[in-house]
Design brief:
- The structure holds two protein chains of two kinds.
- Chain A has eleven helices and two strands.
- Chain A is mainly alpha-helical.
- In chain A, helix 7 (122-147) packs antiparallel against helix 8 (154-184).
- By secondary structure, chain B is an all-alpha fold.
- Chain B is 68% helix and 2% strand.
- The radius of gyration of chain B is 34 Å and the shape is elongated.
- The chains are: A mainly alpha, B mainly alpha.
- Chain A binds chain B through residues 4-5, 7-11, 74, 78-79, 81-83, 85-86, 89, 132, 136, 140, 144, 148, 151-156, 159, 200, 203, 206, 214, 217-218, 220-221, and chain B through 1-11, 13-15, 17-22, 25, 28-29, 32, 35-36, 39-40, 42-44.
- Strand 1 of chain A pairs parallel with strand 1 (3-4) of chain B.
Chain lengths: 221, 120
């Protein structure tokens, strides 16, 4: 690897990916906040959105954005989506080795060298699947609660409410953990600017954190 | 400065994986919708059976209307509206109507002083 390459930049996330991530993030925050307000009947949260009735409307229509955003992205960027699914769907020996040492994130697990990773490390791959499954569950249970609440049976509606709530709780915790690792943790916070700002990350960091992917990029150069 | 950019496009394997996930999502949506329709049909069937059971039980009763029940009429004549069958008197209202929520403290007070209530 030449010095020039090491000092170079790697485009990790394209404009449309970043736009979709931002859109989904903002929608998720609004949905999470209003949802928590409804579940625990917190007047302060409902009042931010102009009272319970308006907060309910905001929750529903933000749910439409939450659903339509990724769908539109997949429609316009099917190749990116397919590559993403391929990456997070491929668990290699290195991924399992990464999980054994938890990527070197835990202070009590001593690691000399973290196994080389794809564009997304094993933890991100697992998060990716959990987010996909969580979103599908939340979307599938959310719309019947809105559109067919007066015509579907009480048992099915109750199941929708429970699945919606518990999936949302797990998703909020996952996204909290994701935010901590991607924006706060000193080992990986460099990732933040690549997804939230310009899409680029230092080649040196990429070579270190995503060695397998970086080697592939070099091959295609 | 050198910038490394991913090669655009996708391989055959990536295409099938992407399509596969969309297909699985569509199937999941279908399965979930089917579950919803099935639960709905089962609920409708249960409600219809329960209603039919209540109607048939009612049809088999000798006395089907409370105002035609001679025992009820006798209670009115003897106690609730002495000498006649007159519904909605103060006494029948007080004794027969269920009270809820904020009415409960007043009911407790009434029960504490049965003599005064008898006079009413």
């Amino acid at each position: 690897m030449s010095t020039e390459q090491v000092n170079g930049k790697v485009l990790k996330h394209g404009t449309q990916t970043r736009t979709m991530h931002w859109l989904h993030l903002v929608a998720f925050c609004i949905l999470g906040l209003t949802g928590i307000g409804f579940y625990w009947d917190i007047a302060g949260i409902a009042n931010i959105f102009g009272g319970p009735a308006n907060a309910s409307l905001v929750h529903r229509w933000t749910g439409v954005v939450f659903t339509a955003g990724p769908l539109l992205y997949i429609l316009l960027n099917f190749d990116r989506f397919a590559r993403f699914i391929d990456t997070i769907g491929s668990f290699s020996k290195e991924d399992f080795a990464w999980l054994k040492v938890m990527g070197g994130y835990l202070p009590f697990i001593k690691v000399d060298k973290v196994p080389a990773q794809d564009k997304y490390n094993a933890g991100q791959k697992m998060l990716g699947w959990m987010i996909i499954i969580g979103c599908i569950l939340i979307i599938l249970t959310g719309f019947p609660m809105w559109l067919w609440r007066h015509s579907i049976s009480a048992a099915f509606l109750n199941a929708c409410y429970n699945i919606h709530f518990w999936t949302a709780m797990i998703m909020i915790l996952l996204v909290g953990g994701h935010f901590f690792l991607a924006a706060i943790h000193p080992k990986s916070r460099v990732e933040f600017s690549s997804m939230m700002i310009d899409g680029y990350i230092d080649a040196e960091i990429s070579a270190h954190h995503n060695g397998k992917w970086f080697a592939e990029l070099q091959k295609t150069e | 400065m050198t910038s490394f950019v991913e090669k655009e496009g996708m391989t055959r394997r990536q295409f099938f994986k992407g399509t596969g996930i969309l297909f699985v999502s569509a199937v999941l949506t279908g399965v979930f919708a089917k579950m919803g329709f099935d639960v709905q049909a089962a609920s409708d069937e249960y409600i219809a059976k329960r209603a039919a059971g209540l109607y048939s039980l009612d049809e088999s009763m000798t006395l089907r209307k409370s105002h035609l029940n001679p025992e009820i009429a006798q209670i009115y004549k003897d106690f609730l509206s002495p000498g006649e069958v007159k519904p909605l008197t103060a006494k029948s209202e007080r004794l027969l109507h269920t009270r809820y929520g904020s009415e409960i403290p007043a009911l407790i007070e009434e029960l504490k002083h049965p003599a005064e209530n008898e006079a009413a």
